[in-house]
TrEMBL record:
GO annotation (BP), single: methylation
Organism annotation: Arcicella rosea
InterPro entries referenced in this protein's UniProt entry, alphabetically: Methyltranfer_dom, SAM-dependent_MTases_sf
SUPFAM superfamilies noted in UniProt: S-adenosyl-L-methionine-dependent methyltransferases
Gene Ontology cellular-component terms listed: cytoplasm
Annotated CDD domains: AdoMet_MTases
Name of the protein in question: SAM-dependent methyltransferase
Record carries keyword Ion transport: no
Record-level Gene Ontology MF annotations: methyltransferase activity
Amino acid sequence: MNQQEHLATFIKAFSESLQDNSFVKISLGNYKGTEEQLKNIYIKRVLIKKDEKLSFTYRYKTRDIVKNFSLSEGINAVENALQEGFNIATLFTNKFDLIIEKLNQKTVLRKTDSSNPKAISLEHDKAKNRLIKPQEKPYLHELKITDEAGNVYKNAQDKYRQINHYVEILSTLIKDIPTQNHLKVADMGSGKGYLTFALYDYLTNVLKLEAAVTGVEFRPDMVALCNNIAQNTGFSTLNFVEGTIEDYDSTGTNILIALHACDTATDDAIYKGITANADLIVVAPCCHKQIRREIEKHKASNELDFLTKYGIFLERQAEMVTDGIRAMILEYFGYKTKVFQFISDAHTPKNVLVVGIKSPNAGSKREEILAKLKATKEYFGIEYHHLERLFKL
Ligand SMILES: C[S@@+](CC[C@H](N)C(=O)[O-])C[C@H]1O[C@@H](n2cnc3c(N)ncnc32)[C@H](O)[C@@H]1O
């Protein structure tokens, strides 16, 4: 097959995957075209006001631009992108993955097993029975998720769904904790406060619990913005404090969450949760730089080099080792743990949730855990894990 035939096969497979609903996403990379700072394009399918669209995220060095196209425009746009500078594209479907790559003057096409066999292929905004309804929620308007009438803005559909998804997950976890009133909740690294507000709303207005919720954030602009919105919307026991996770006094906290707190900030958050003897600790880790650096220092010097010499493997090893050790340390301190993917990786690769639920029966295997921790560190050439160091284990 020549270059044009390979391209035609790829485009045909793309088009067919849209027709039979097996399409998951497309990513384009290795850009060598003329548009300055353009690096990748990521494409997913969305349903906007009942219209199926292809949503293209153009990733530049320092910003992202999102454009939505009709299906036929989107197919043409992918074809053009492959002729105008992108040298690799992967079509992910839930039947197979198809990669087209230009190497020197040749084009190769590779078909592999699907990496998303169960992925939901369609993003949609169908009116589900959401825990956080958009109407009559002034805070959602102030956070620019809805207009004044409670209609979710087109560009905030993803965020709105995400908020509800988090709250749904938390709602099932919260059912299992012993403290059911006078809850003290801390959201570490609360950022713009989307989830902090939604969780407060859910606890106090849906479950009708008494809850004091605090967002901890070191960016003063975010703290001021969130406190303003909390005040304007009458959320009297929701507040945001300016400061670091490390310095926050978490005494008495029942529920501690930290979503995408960078690198070791997640460890600081878990530490605050464990030392407060919180009933529930939920973290969505972000990057795993500390352990990545540790593994990298030793990667060429042992027989594991084949697992760490490629950037993507190193990244994944660092993630699994970091979060695996976090889960072990939670168990060491008497928490039952769960680790699961909470959102499709079509959205973000930062999609793992580490959950610790205080349990009277957990924590009996301390010696075993310490031995495993020691062996893991030796195996990967790790000098220390930040959470382990905080506890001086
Ligand atoms: C990626 S954002 C996530 C925000 C929010 N949790 C969410 O999921 O939408 C991480 C936030 O944590 C804050 N942060 C990171 N490290 C922190 C630390 N050590 N102390 C306080 N805030 C921190 C950052 O300023 C940022 O706003």
